[in-house]
Input
Amino acid sequence: MIDETLRDAQVKMTKAVEVAKDDFASIRTGRAHPAMFTKLTADYYGTPTPFQQLASFHTPEPRVVTINAYDKKALAAIEKSIRDSDLGVNPTNNGDMLRVVMPELTEERRKDYIKLAKAKAEDARVSVRNIRRHAKQTLERAQKDGDLGEDELSTAEKRLDGQTKKHVEEIDELLKVKESELIEV
Output
């Protein structure tokens, strides 16, 4: 019972950290990288389709991303989706592929992105804490039902707190790395 609850909490907390990683990857830094486009979708024959299913991405230069659509008819939809996104870039379409040049980030824009990263980190921390609270309630319910003794509950809660602390520290480390990327000129 205890191991199952803690294992379930561990898996969910790890997923929360992975979501935070993905969120951080989608925040633009001064460099171009394909992960910036992971959250974007384009209208492809009436269906919102993720970019990864529509095109391949290449970074020939540090601040340039080229996008080659598998179906050239999708280029216009991809271009429109990038323009409408909050990336702040304007792709150029030569009929064969899109070329996205990342402008230098201003100091103000860097600060905005750092705020966004901190907000995403806090969301991830809240998610981990909610998972901890749910697991703790499950353990307390089991103790009330007589399935666990008080010592077992105390030990399980300490293990749960250790897991929570480890995952929150992991999120904080990811945030620190992202902040240093954003500050770097």
